[in-house]
Design goal:
Chain lengths: 238, 567
Amino acid sequence: MQGLSVENVTVRFGEVTAVDAVSLGIPRGEVFALLGPSGSGKSSLLRAIAGLEPCTGDIRWDDESVMRMPPHRRRFALMFQDGQLFPHLDVAGNVGYALRVSTRASGATRPAIAQRVAELLDLVGLAGFERRRVTDLSGGEQQRVALARSLAASPRLLLLDEPLSSLDRELRERLAGELRDILRATGVTAILVTHDHDEAGVIADRIGILDAGRLVQTGTLAELRAHPVDDRVARFLS
Amino acid sequence: MGGDRDPVTLIRQSRGREAGNPSHLRRISSRGATAAAWILAAAVPLVFVGVFFAWPVASIVGRGLFPDGMLDVAGIVEVLSRPRTVRIIGFTIGMAAAATAITLVLGMPVAYVLSRLRFRGRGVLRAAVLVPFVLPTVVVGIAFRALLRDTPLDGSVVAILAALVFFNVAVVARTVAVSWESLDPRQEEAARVLGAGPVRVFVTITLRRLAPSIAAAASIVFLFCSTAFGTVLVLGGAKYATIETEIWLLTTQFLDLRAASVLSVAQIVVVLLLLVITARVRGRTTAQHRSFATRRPRRSDTPVIAATVLIALALAVPLAALLERSLRVAGEWSGGNYLALASTGGRNALTVTPWQALGNSLGFAAAATGLAMLVGLVACVLLSRTPRSPVARRGLDLVDGALMLPLGVSAVTVGFGFLITLNSPPLDLRTSPVLVPIAQALVAVPLVVRTLLPVLRSVGSRMRDAAATLGAPPWRVILTIDLGVAGRAALAATGLAFTVALGEFGATTFLSRPDAATLPVVIYRLIGLPGGDNAGMAAAASVVLAAVCVAVVALVERLRVDTAGAF
């Protein structure tokens, strides 16, 4: 299959099973939302896909297993809930980070990097912010920088871990629309982790519902609402 | 940006095919290589501390305690029951305890002013308080002799106590100030509203919450006081001996290795106990502390401000006395002592001129700093990780503890240990000048680690995860994230390590050869010889050495890193 396939993936922390035998397929170019209440294992699954959490089962990209690949070789960029911007670098330093450190990018010249950074900042609505300190930015601006930084890596798969949940509601709703447009414009394959079904509905093509570590149902928001597999899903989506 | 149509990706894919390298094999080997790299990294500090610290110290101790391969119990008892030994151990502990108590009392008002109040000159005060701490011990000794000359206090216990307090006020002031800054003043306000008076609030709320940092500062000051060598040697002369000066006397003058070893072991036991207590109290500190807004001074702050000003002035007095002494020849104002720095002293007391010695000192200190930073950086990157496996975590705690040991173990023991272990194959370095910077680096490494580690620990593992998913291999994460964030702290640590190496006296006095003597060694030699000219020269040389240290501190302070918070 072209794209990501997750087969029977289980993540355990000692006795606790955070992700329980999850299987799912995401074709290239699709934006998929993992939706579930807190503690349902969404973030653990995302970290396992990124290679940051040991797991059993198989994770493949274009039919090639990435299980033995360390995170930096997978080309699955992860954007954190709180951005995790590098405080010692300015905006351009953060956004251009992947272009400077990745072995794939070796040979990229300074002007080429600067131009790419400018394009990305333009894309996320922060044109001209290159020399600003990341610690001086607002929460929304920081998340835009984090998004631009993740996109700069030209990831095959973009993993978004509750990218908007640290923002206030009004900003969150506005950014959700923008995020959808940016993901469409770049055509990147993405997994969005969220506990907000409206946000999932706005941004994602398809939604998977995770409950207590198990993937209980997948479909579009309309499909899930029309035919919830059980009462818990129905209540969660209402 | 369409995923795999990216040109860089296409290049990489074609490269991969050319190599015909089954990708999973390459990845397995890269995982093994990562583990090997970590083990190698752990080996750098462990081998350094093992070869240049544990081995020399162990062999000194072995020679003293196991003279014929058997534990010489009768000999140990004999040494410990000598009246002189009992007196010296008692004096060392009593004096260190008294100096610690006085230092705590004097350090607290300074800590309060530095952490809570906002005023012009706060940065200058911060830096000024740090100056005594980075001065070479020999220089502090000479300064107090210059101050107390021709008074009954010269050569008294009071002089030693005063010098030790002078040296350590910075440790208390700055360690406590760092945690005072992060106390929420609203808790004190809440207690006031509930009806507690200011004294009661201070005792029941503030002191109680500062207790861990006060305890940490107290134990480190006690450690410095009880192992002080240069200051005590210069001020105490033959009359007052501490364990450290006695070890020196026993090894160099009486060649009584057994007694020296017993004293070394006694000191190591005390130091180990203290380090364990300090580690317990301190816990795993990180540089992430909240800092509450400082406020303008109020009228009620007057006593504290007055006390702080007095303390700051008192810290300046010995240095002023040193400067004055250096400018007098036979009682008259003169620059003659400085001119004499180009000579080898009255009656050719020296093999090299003080200027040449300064050159030697700078060279050795530079080499020592490089070595200390290499070992310290590798150790800190390692210690800042939190591995999944409990065995690896325990291993890291071991490395952490091992690196702190040189802080407290007698520098004299280390220096003498070098002479008896590193003089035969496989490692014959006795005739090589590298021993001096190695010994100095050993003393500087704990300071480097305590400065860098909190900053590196403030880099969360998720920030490293973010860098990894952006395509940075582990070594690039270290270079661009860890060292990027810790860059300024690393510069500050470099400066501190340099001043420590520059002033190191205990071990250097054993290791530096007369034709390559360092400035502290030359200064000590000058005051040991009769003649007013030599004492004046020693004062002038001390001023020069102090000036270099102050210049380095001024540079470090400009970096605004919480250096003393590291203890």
